[in-house]
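Tutorial, part two.
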Amino acid sequence: VNQKHLFFAGSNQKRLSELTQALTSNTTRGVIAIRGGYGCAPLYPQLKKKLKSRRGLKPKVFMGFSDLTILL
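Running the prediction step on this input gives:
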């Protein structure tokens, strides 16, 4: 949240890495985006590939607004 890269909270790679970790961790119960999702569209294709290869993922609450809808 506190990182800055252009208009975003960190680079695409950093945000993709953190989101992938949160969505694949067995200890994470949910993800709540606290900023708008303007930078989510570029993450979607890579996130989809990373999650497709994972088996047995537990369901999680995933909340947000704005352009985050592409990930919801």
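The first helix runs from residue 12 to 24. In part three we will examine how such features are distributed along the chain.
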